[in-house]
Amino acid sequence: MKFTVLTVNLHKGFGFFNRRFILHELREAVRAVSADVVFLQEVLGEHELHAARVPTWPQAPHYEFLADSLWSDFAYGRNAVYPQGHHGNALLSKFAITHHTNHDVSVEGPERRGLLHSVLKLEDGRQLHAICVHLGLRESHRQRQVERLCQLIDSLPPEDPVVVAGDFNDWRQRAHRMLSRCAGLAEVFVKSYGAAARTFPARFPLLPLDRIYVRGASVQHPIVLPRRPWSHLSDHAPLAAEIRL
C-alpha cells in the first residue's frame, strides 16, 4: 500500500504582499502533483469583502474549489473567525474520510490555531490518521501545541498509521525530538537526508518551517518539486512524499 502526500500553506489564496489573487494558479499547481492526500494551511472558508472585490473569487469555499473533481473527500477546520469570514486548515483526500475533528490548540492571545484530525479508509481497509498542523509563531505556544499533538497521537490505536503534515513555524527545529520521543514520529526529509527541508521564504528558502511526519510507515520517499511555479504562488514552498505502509 502506497500513497503520495502534499502539504502547502495557501497564504489565503493571495501572492506575496497580498497583491494578487492566485488561487486558480494554486489549484493547477496542486492538481499537477496529483497527491492522494493534500494538507492545506491558511485556507479561506469565507471572506465577504474579498468575494465582493475580486472578480475571479470562487462561489464555493476555497477547499471545495481546490478539491474539484480530483479529490472526492475533503475536511475543513475553522480556526480564525472575524467579521468578514474565517480561515483554517483543510484536507483533500482521494480516500474516503470517515470522520474528522478540529482540535483547538490556541493559547492566550488573538492567534487562533488548530489540529485538523481526519480518519481515512484506505483501499486495503486500514485506517490512516491524517493530522493537518499549523502551529503558532511564539515558541512557548508551539511547545504547548506540540504537547497537545503528542497527546492526540498517543490516544490513537497504535497499529494505525499516522501522517502529520503542515506548517510548524519551528525555525529552531525543536519539535523533532519532542515528536520522536512522545509520539514515535519520524520526519520524512530528516530521515532521508539528515535535515529538514528549507521552505521559507519560498523564493529563497532559508528556514525549515514545513514538515511531513509519519508513524507506522515502512518507507518514506521525499519528492523534489520544481521551484517554478511554486516559488511565486505562496510564501512557503510545498513538501511532498511517497509513503509506503
TrEMBL record:
**Which GO cellular component terms are attached?**
membrane
Q: Which domain of life is it from?
A: Bacteria
UniProt xrefs under SUPFAM superfamilies: DNase I-like
Q: Which GO terms describe its molecular function?
A: catalytic activity
> What are the boundaries of the signal sequence?
none
Extract the coiled-coil ranges from the record.
none
Q: Name one GO biological process term.
A: GPI anchor biosynthetic process
Q: Which residues form the Endonuclease/exonuclease/phosphatase domain?
A: 25-236
By its UniProt entry, which InterPro entries does this protein fall under? Endo/exonu/phosph_ase_sf, Endo/exonuclease/phosphatase, GPI-anchor_lipid_remodeler
The name this protein carries in UniProt is Endonuclease/exonuclease/phosphatase domain-containing protein
Q: Which organism is it from?
A: Roseateles chitinivorans
Q: What is the lineage of its organism?
A: Bacteria, Pseudomonadati, Pseudomonadota, Betaproteobacteria, Burkholderiales
